[in-house]
Write a structure and sequence with these properties.
By secondary structure, this protein is mainly α. Helices cover 77% and strands 0% of the residues. It contains nine helices and no strands. The radius of gyration is 36 Å and the shape is elongated.
């Protein structure tokens, strides 16, 4: 039974439902700043909020009910800190509240509230997805970086009226994430400017991981070469020490043989001589 409980706990504490719900609510956040918001954005807030609340409730219930029976030393992908559970409850309620608030382009307090929620959502997304970016190979990081830049380019193409093509949106996403700022294509609307802030925070961090992985690859190659040279030198030194030990052992054996050959055969041992001397 404990193994079944642990299995249910692992299934309920999976980060994927909450991760998908948080990502799905991002388009709704920017749609509320568009001149003609769509109806689906409201339903996206509702669905995402309900999913996050259900996930937070299941995690809290199972952790409280079976926390004592959790195997020692077992870690989870994103942890169950009490503050994180409370944050999940807050985000779920906040997303439901976003569904009933006025549109961001019509109410400045609603825009400020949604910005605060968006920052907390970004923090939660980073906490959940952190294991995906740690101890990851270069190929996987490149795939993740390309996917993020493609999604950011689509976002700029959707949000900014001055971005007339998808390749302009991709170029703007790359120049924004890399913080180069050529100035040929720039965000022109409120939604795209807010979007660019999150692109910098997410894209620059991801590009830094890619460049760090490339640098680590070259450094690792050099370290392996140095390690190979050290091991080869140590092997040569051990071979030399082994040969010297063999030579010293042979010299000792030769000295023992010479000493035994120099002793007269008719000379009795010292103990035997001492015995003859003591006799009357």
């Amino acid at each position: 039974m404990p193994s079944r409980r642990h299995h249910f706990l692992d299934a309920a504490s999976s980060p994927w439902p909450m991760l998908i719900a948080l990502i799905a609510s991002v388009p709704a956040f920017y749609d509320s700043m568009m001149p003609t918001p769509a109806t689906w954005a409201t339903w996206m807030y509702v669905v995402s909020g309900v999913v996050i609340l259900i996930s937070a409730w299941r995690v809290q219930k199972l952790v409280q009910g079976h926390g004592a029976s959790q195997p020692s030393g077992k870690t989870r992908p994103w942890g169950h800190h009490p503050l994180e559970v409370k944050l999940d409850w807050f985000l779920g309620v906040a997303l439901l509240l976003n569904a009933v608030l006025p549109q961001s382009n019509e109410s400045e307090p609603a825009l400020i509230w949604r910005l605060i929620v968006a920052v907390l959502m970004l923090y939660r997304l980073l906490k959940i997805s952190l294991p995906l970016f740690t101890e990851t190979g270069l190929a996987r990081l490149l795939a993740m970086g390309g996917t993020v830049l493609a999604l950011c380019g689509i976002g700029f193409y959707w949000l900014d009226p001055e971005v007339n093509s998808l390749h302009d949106g991709l170029w703007l996403a790359f120049s924004t994430a890399a913080t180069v700022g050529y100035g040929d294509v720039v965000p022109s609307s409120t939604a795209s400017r807010i979007f660019s802030v999150f692109v910098v925070l997410l894209g620059y961090g991801l590009l830094s991981l890619v460049t760090a992985s490339i640098a680590a690859m070259f450094v690792g190659t050099q370290e392996r070469k140095v390690e190979h040279d050290i091991l080869r030198d140590m092997h040569q030194q051990l071979q030399s020490v082994r040969q010297e030990i063999v030579a010293l052992r042979q010299a000792v054996e030769d000295m023992k043989t010479e000493q035994q050959g120099m002793q007269p055969e008719d000379t009795p041992p010292k103990a035997l001589r001492a015995t003859h001397t003591e006799q009357p």
